[in-house]
């Protein structure tokens, strides 16, 4: 899958609360990220988003009451049906891809060992997108894209407009952020 899923959107606003999610339903954004949620809320949140013409990418590792295994991911894919799934877990990404849900492999790149381990993981999962955290490392964004050819989304520790600009200049197709002041970048 290509970056056309995101149209021309460069900021992917990430809702940490239901109040923020509801605010995003009224926004100009087509793609929104759902971070923290509860399993009992998922179906109604996705239905609300669909009615509002939004595509929700759900961070399944942060769903309370849901074990992040293959069965839980099958449930999310078949019953909840978000546009995309974000996860750090290999089995979640692989299951999302099996169900034709856009899969975003989230990587915490803390040091050289984590980077090398991530490259091995990406060979197995072959996600549609990679979310690189922290997203304030332009040279790492460039390196990961050059090595994998998979579109990069920068996230984590993006605090200033300059952080957004540097990530995009480094080749990220977009930036995820829960900082509302950056949503209108």
How is the secondary structure organized here?
Layout: E1 11-15, H1 18-25, E2 31-34, E3 37-38, H2 42-51, E4 55-59, E5 63-64, H3 70-80, E6 84-87, H4 90-98, E7 102-108, H5 112-125, E8 129-133, H6 138-148, E9 152-155, H7 161-169, E10 174-177
Parallel strand pairs: 1-2, 1-10, 2-4, 3-5, 4-6, 6-7, 7-8, 8-9, 9-10
What can you see in these coordinates?
The chain is of the alpha/beta class. The protein has one domain (3-182): Alpha-Beta Barrel (TIM Barrel), CATH 3.20.20.70. Helix content is 39%, strand content 23%. The protein is built from seven helices and ten strands. It has helices at residues 18-25, 42-51, 70-80, 90-98, 112-125, 138-148, 161-169, and strands spanning 11-15, 31-34, 37-38, 55-59, 63-64, 84-87, 102-108, 129-133, 152-155, 174-177. The protein has an eight-stranded parallel beta barrel, surrounded by six helices. α3 runs parallel beside α4 (90-98). The radius of gyration is 15 Å and the shape is globular. The chain starts with 10 loop residues before the first strand and ends in an 8-residue tail after the last strand. Keywords: Glycerol metabolism, RNA-binding, Transcription, Transcription regulation. GO terms for molecular function: RNA binding; transcription antitermination factor activity, RNA binding. This is Glycerol uptake operon antiterminator regulatory protein. It comes from Halalkalibacter okhensis. Regulates expression of the glpD operon. In the presence of glycerol 3-phosphate (G3P) causes antitermination of transcription of glpD at the inverted repeat of the leader region to enhance its transcription. Binds and stabilizes glpD leader mRNA.
